[in-house]
Specification:
The protein has 158 residues and is mostly helical. It contains five helices and no strands. It has two domains: 76 residues, no CATH class; 79 residues.
């Protein structure tokens, strides 16, 4: 592979990745600001409605009030336990790498060979994708076994 091919590959992978990260960050910030605005508005309405009432002052000291008006950004869905999240990430990465490796090996056959070694890049990336995909699958299996063993050890001590 020539240097210009690598640069083109980095552009097609790097720019969408950076844009995706920026969009995700902006959307997270917008969601946080909307949540902050809604809770501030609810707090203002509560203060307007009850004014300087003594019951409101007592309510504001309780833990329920703090939980209701605390501005914490929660995830929209319930979070998956860490071992299962790691396993899922490894399986997704393995599927992507295996598919990319197999595609590179498949495409290698159809690349015209104008010079000796034109297909070496495709062979290299296909082999590396396959090897890393298999490694990610082994990693997912190891995480699964470790999670089961850890759970078994915790159940024995409890």
């Amino acid at each position: 592979m020539r240097g210009s091919d690598v640069a083109v590959l980095l552009v097609f992978v790097g720019i969408p990745s950076a844009l995706g990260w920026i969009i995700r960050t902006v959307l997270s910030h917008v969601r946080y600001m909307r949540l902050l605005h809604l809770k501030a508005e609810a707090n203002a309405r509560l203060l307007d409605k009850f004014g300087a009432n003594a019951d409101l002052a007592e309510y504001m000291k309780t833990e329920t009030y703090r939980e209701l008006f605390d501005v914490k950004q929660t995830e929209p869905a319930a979070r998956m336990p860490v071992p299962y999240s790691r396993m899922l990430t490894s399986v997704q990465l393995a599927a992507f790498l295996l598919a990319a490796g197999i595609a590179c090996l498949f495409v290698k056959q159809y690349v015209p060979t104008y010079r000796p070694g034109d297909q070496i890049g495709w062979l290299f990336f296909g082999t590396m994708g396959g090897a890393l995909g298999i490694g990610a699958l082994v990693s997912a299996a190891a995480a699964f076994v470790a999670a089961r063993l850890w759970q078994a050890m915790r159940n024995e001590t409890a």
